[in-house]
Design brief:
Helices cover 60% and strands 5% of the residues. With 401 residues, it is mostly helical. The protein folds into three domains: 126 residues, 3-Layer(aba) Sandwich (Rossmann fold), CATH 3.40.50.1390; 77 residues, no CATH class; 189 residues, Orthogonal Bundle (Hypothetical protein af1432), CATH 1.10.3210.10. It has a four-stranded parallel beta sheet, sandwiched between helices. Helix 6 runs antiparallel to helix 10 and helix 17 crosses helix 18. The longest helix is centred in the N-terminal third of the chain and has 22 residues. The protein is globular and about 70 Å long. It starts with a strand and ends in an 11-residue tail after the last helix.
């Protein structure tokens, strides 16, 4: 049986980490020799990999999609991630390509005895088993951005080789969101002006929009054009808040705000019948707590958590997955509370601008406003700026054709 190993250590001390890596490799090799498995490769996470970015795990899943091997040997399942949902997601992704995962220290019986949350996550994961992996070019862009030795020309060359992506990125760069006084005509210019992290956001956002374009065979319960327009206005609103309060969250605002509701699209496309019931029960987008409760009732998972599962499975930056998970309850975000709070307020301002005829301060969470140091007068100023800008947005759908 064609086999690969996955090696990962969470130890911070170099000597301890090296020792654990060596032991893991030896155990995988011994196991393969004992059972007559053909060990093709060891995927070893580098020391600089982080909980929110595992480059070797991305490569392993991509290679699994090519049917290059039949099973993965790992010391313990927690090497895939500390989070139960993340581990189940990875194993489900491998299972989709008929790749089995075997732990040297945990049996399948032990896995079945893991608490109910895991079996529930398995049921949820089964609903979205066909969600595609991120395009290879997106993972390459993310790798370049993460590497401090990378240059602007390297990033430009990678994007330039995908004409469709190049067109979509340039449409976004030249949209009203950025408002540059002159036309940006090349990817090299875009990288130079916007920087690596913002370019990552543009590539990621435009690619995800393309992946989740409306499916023709679905009854249009979710208004996609309205959905994406709300997402863009949320990004504009979040940027206005950031600038008004003179915060330093600029790099991740576009991606975090425009992707915050991505879980809704996933539920609509991969659990359509149940999500139709959700939207029939809760038609007002401003009653977030009722929407989350209805999603849990009919789909067994909220759009926040579904979006988070997909973001984690794609190894998106932790700041993005955290905001997706907590944009309705930003005070519960541990590492990205400020960014999640900005997106939370931006989300409400977007709904006010697009769905209501008047401003209503009661829609905002006072605890979030106090945390950001923003009051009703500030919100009125920002709201007027947003309304002025909406007329210049145009047809968002055209950005992603």
């Amino acid at each position: 049986m064609k086999t690969v190993g996955y090696i990962n250590s969470y130890r911070l001390q170099e000597i301890e980490r090296s020792l654990e890596i060596r032991i893991q490799k030896e155990k995988v090799q011994e196991f393969c020799v004992k059972h007559g498995f053909e060990l093709l490769k060891m995927y070893e996470e580098p020391e600089e990999s982080r909980p929110d970015y595992k480059p070797e795990l991305i490569k392993l899943i991509n290679d699994a999609s090519k049917r290059e091997f039949e099973q993965v040997i790992i010391l313990k399942f927690d090497r895939f991630g500390h989070d139960d949902t993340m581990r189940t997601w990875v194993m489900g992704e491998l299972k989709k390509y008929k790749v089995e995962t075997y732990s040297l220290t945990e049996s399948k019986i032990q896995l079945e005895k893991v608490p109910t949350a895991i079996s529930r996550a398995e049921r949820i994961r089964a609903k979205v088993r066909d969600i595609p992996s991120l395009p290879e070019i997106v993972t390459k862009v993310m790798e370049i951005v993460q590497d401090p030795r990378s240059s602007a020309s390297q990033l430009s060359r990678v994007i330039f080789h995908d004409p469709g992506l190049t067109t979509r990125v340039l449409r976004l760069v030249n949209s009203a969101y950025y408002g540059f006084p002159r036309q940006i005509s090349s990817i090299q210019q875009a990288v130079t002006i916007l920087g690596f992290t913002t370019m990552r956001g543009l590539v990621l956002s435009s690619s995800i929009f393309k992946i989740f374009s409306p499916k023709n065979d679905l009854i249009k319960t979710l208004d996609y054009k309205k959905f994406w327009k709300h997402s863009l206005v949320s990004a504009i609103s979040a940027k206005k808040i950031n600038n008004y309060l003179q915060f330093n969250e600029e790099d991740d605002i576009f991606s975090a705000a425009i992707l915050h509701d991505i879980g809704k699209v996933i539920l609509d496309q991969y659990d359509h019948e149940n999500y139709t019931l959700v939207l029939q029960k809760v038609s007002n987008p401003l009653v977030g707590h009722e929407l989350l409760a209805a999603e849990e009732e009919y789909c067994e998972i909220s759009h926040q958590n579904m979006g988070y599962m997909v973001a984690e499975g794609w190894n998106l930056p932790e700041s993005l997955s955290e905001v997706i998970r907590h944009h309705h309850d930003p005070m519960n975000s541990i590492k990205n509370k400020k960014l999640a709070s900005i997106v939370n307020v931006g989300n409400i301002l977007s709904h006010i601008a697009l769905d209501l005829n008047s401003f209503d301060a009661k829609l905002f969470n006072k605890e979030v406003l106090d945390y950001l140091g923003i009051n009703e007068d500030d919100l009125l100023v920002i709201n007027s700026q947003i309304i002025e800008e909406i007329e210049n947005i145009g047809d968002l759908e055209s950005f992603f054709k």
